[in-house]
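Hey, can you fold this one?
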Amino acid sequence: MIEGKGDYLFSVKENRQALKEDIEGYAQEEHLRKTMDTCTKTEKTSCRIERRIAYTSADIGRLYGKEEWEKPACIGAVNTRFSSEKGETNEWHYYMSSRRLTAEELLKHARLEWSVESMHWLLDVHFSEDFCRVETGMSNKI
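Sure. Predicted structure:
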């Protein structure tokens, strides 16, 4: 991606535990979070209120394993709270990017990722896409 003049934005999950813990620790430290760029969006539908707060920082000096990534430039976190008559949920998601992002940009790009993930979930759960073993291409056998 970098060689092709592109950038990456990765959702950092448990498969990169040390990196996730570093970003999580940064975002959860109140005095550090206050230094981060912040953007809040609230949306209301007929049955729930969704509040998303994004935080970004180019302070990546203390990240464990940053050498494994090509040109890391930014870390981020998104806190999502859903409120409905059934109660409230609170989720955190962590990110790393090769481009310095504002918190508003992170919210936009994270939202796009969630739409792709929800489509994958739909295809997997309802159509068992992950279990499909169909191969493409022509066989040499006739």
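The longest strand covers residues 74-84. Let me know if you want another pass with a different chain boundary.
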